[in-house]
Design goal:
single chain; alpha+beta; 8-stranded mixed sheet
Length: 172
């Protein structure tokens, strides 16, 4: 949490393009299904990254989604996911571009759900991480308050604000 006092920058187009997106469908203790979109910074195959830089960039991602540290109240941030058929896109506040969620089966299921949980990890994670490694990553970051979360809804196509719709048409 080296950068807690520094206002994080809005995510750049390059950062949005580089994010690793993991989607899943989960259930509450009461059996209610909800979607999950987890965004992580991809660990490089070769070489090292500056962890402070990764953390600052991912704080910017979390801030642009309205996410808060895991363990506290989970903010509801309004409709951030736009659906068009089996295509889904995630909108970041303060950015000119949305991120296409290239998971059509997840999008098809999520379109029928009330809520989606957005999860942002502040540390790098290999894009090829196994389910067990992802679970370990989440537990470790949640313990250190380096995991950010927010609730969002799926925006019906006719309810998307014009400027958001224009940004989403330029999805990466």
């Amino acid at each position: 949490m080296a950068h807690a006092e520094i206002a994080p920058p809005a995510p750049s187009t390059g950062l949005i393009l580089s994010l690793t997106v993991r989607t899943s469908l989960e259930h509450t203790a009461e059996g209610k299904m909800f979607g999950v979109v987890m965004l992580t910074y991809p660990a490089p195959q070769f070489g090292e990254v500056d962890q402070d830089d990764v953390e600052l960039k991912m704080r910017g991602v979390a801030a642009s989604l309205g996410a808060a540290p895991y363990g506290g109240p989970v903010p509801t941030v309004g409709a951030r996911i736009h659906m068009q058929g089996a295509d889904a896109a995630l909108w970041f506040k303060g950015c000119d571009f949305g991120l296409r969620l290239k998971h059509p089966r997840w999008a098809s299921a999520a379109a029928r759900l009330d809520e989606v949980l957005l999860v942002v990890g502040l540390a790098e994670l290999s894009p090829g991480a196994t389910r067990a490694e992802v679970d370990e990553y989440r537990v470790h970051l949640a313990t250190n308050r380096d995991l950010y979360v927010a609730r969002t809804q799926i925006a019906p196509p006719n309810a998307v604000h014009d400027c958001v719709a224009a940004a989403l048409r330029r999805c990466l």
